[in-house]
Amino acid sequence: MLALGKRVGNVVRLAEVVQVLIKHGFANVVHRAQLHEGIPARLLRGMHILDTPSGEPETQGKRLCAALMELGPTFVKFGQILSTRPDLVGNAVSESLQDLQDRVTAAPFEDIERVIVGELGKRPTALFARFERTPVAAASLSQVHRAALKDGTAVAVKVQRPGIERVIESDLSLMRRIAEWVAAHVEEIAWMDPVGVVDEFARSIARELDFTIEGRVIERFRANFAGTDEIFVPRVYEDLSARRVLTMEWVDGVRIDAISAYPERNCTPKAVANICCEMLCRQVFDHHLFHADPHPGNIFVTRDNQIAFLDYGMAGHVEHTDGIAFAELLQAIFREDADACIAAMLPLTMTGECENRAQLHHEIADYLAFEARAVVSGGNVGQGIKRMVDILRNNRLQLAPRFSLLLKALATVESVGHLLDPKMDMVPVIQPHVERLVAQRYSPARMMRDAESGLAAMIRLSRELPADLKELIGLLRKGQFRAQIRHEGVEPIAGALDRGSNRIAFGLITAALIVGSSLLMRMGAGVSHLGLAGYLGAGILGIVLLVSILRSKNY
User: Fold this and answer.
1) Does 151 qualify as catalytic in the annotation?
2) Has residue 554 got a pLDDT over 60?
3) Within a domain: residue 134?
């Protein structure tokens, strides 16, 4: 089998990844996954691959942050996605990855201007009355410039960094190769489906790179919160927006965590915390579209004391049924009902099934009995759910990605609330929404709609079934019906049988040579050269067989 270094197109970049991992204390990961195999020694600059421990999860997370930062924007974004997956990396590493700083040096204005001309057809001076050359914020994928329209309206212009798509495309190709290799060679990681994680990340970052998608998300938020006095959603100027340029209304306000420094705003931190929690509940349970990155830097309080969310590049979507399942999970936690917890949690996972349901029930029941009440009564709903996710991880169950984003948003808003009001309790805010959704599920109107949907599905099946049966019978008559059967776990047995048969053959040949040589030595006078050659061959084969057995350690 070709080593990883022989399979990737950009072996220089692979060598850089390996070097950075070793530098930050992940040499054992490199060693176990054999990531260094096939890389020319000159590219590793004398670094040693040692099988050393990676330390505690807390230090792992910090060192992983440093490694991802050094590897550049694609890996930083990947780390931010992993921060939403405590079901894969664990809570300690997930929390450390939330500290990843997506801050870079601003791109030169001339490069930004070329992007604007390429997308909108004109230079900024022709499109805007004023365009500030120095950005107000710069991140790995884009930077934001303040500008003014011809009528004087202040706007924010988000421009994609030049060449970033090529960098990401190259890194994604390498990351997928690494994921395929790790899935095949590291058993304890294979269950996490690393290839699927990378593919999900690729879809996520593709959406984030298309600013027209973010523009549509903002417009949906404007429609969802129309008439809500507490929330301000900026307007998008479609005629000044494109795939790599997004122009929106300027938000004049202060960061949510700095509101206490502006008493003249007549807006208390406690009130702001409650509004943020209430707005997230409405996004999830009513609108089914939520802001997935509501950290303090993305939430402002305007001069009119309205809450404004910024940066809609990371947004999540849940179906109505998903929202009900999540509400049922929260209700089960509040009621300390283990069976209801499992019934609500499994549909939120990738497979919807659990191999050891008894073990899962035991762990959840223990948590609800000894920990959940103290956690939830302390106002830490997000922490309570994180602990449930930890139990899922112990049982090798993955959350569906959309729920990972939802849990991240919930935990982030809750932490922001506690930052503003240490005594904030999210349960009274979220519980009415939970009870309303659960009640809706069992309302006569909802049950009637479910019955209608089920009946429609049965009718569709009854229409399609005759044609499917006719096709199947036709294949059987023609002898063209084929069934693919995959035997799992047979390869090790086949390999062992193959090695065993080879050794038996070696042994039989060696024995035959010894017997034959002995007969030749006894025939006639003097020493038989043919007999000596037979003894020599038997000795060599015997040594080869002995070495093979000793190296396998199966003796």
Assistant:
1) no
2) no
3) no
Contact 315, 298 (CB under 8 A): no
Q: 69's torsion region: left (phi>0), alpha (psi -120 to 50) or beta?
A: alpha
- Nearest CA among 365, 252, 358, 233 for reference residue 308: 233
Overall number of domains in the chain: 3
Q: Specify whether 508 is located in the same domain as 544.
A: yes
* Per-residue pLDDT at 154 exceeds 80: yes
What domain range is 352 assigned to?
255-442
Residue 104, both tokens = 């870079």
Claim to verify: residue 378 and residue 411 sit in the same structural domain: yes
Element (H, E) at 146: strand 142-148
pLDDT tens by residue, 476-515: 777 777 766 666 555 666 666 766 666 676 666 667 666 6
Q: What is the C-alpha separation between 8 and 15, in angstroms, rounded?
A: 11
The residue from 87, 293, 322, 425 that is catalytic is 293
Could you give the CA distance from residue 379 to residue 422 in angstroms, rounded to a whole number?
A: 10
Q: Give the span between the Cα atoms of 397 and 290, in whole angstroms.
A: 24
The yes-or-no verdict on residue 293 having pLDDT over 80 is: yes
310 and 327 belong to one structural domain: yes
Euclidean distance between CA atoms 193 and 186, whole angstroms:
11
448 and 438 in a common domain: no
Q: Please check whether residues 274 and 385 belong to one and the same domain.
A: yes
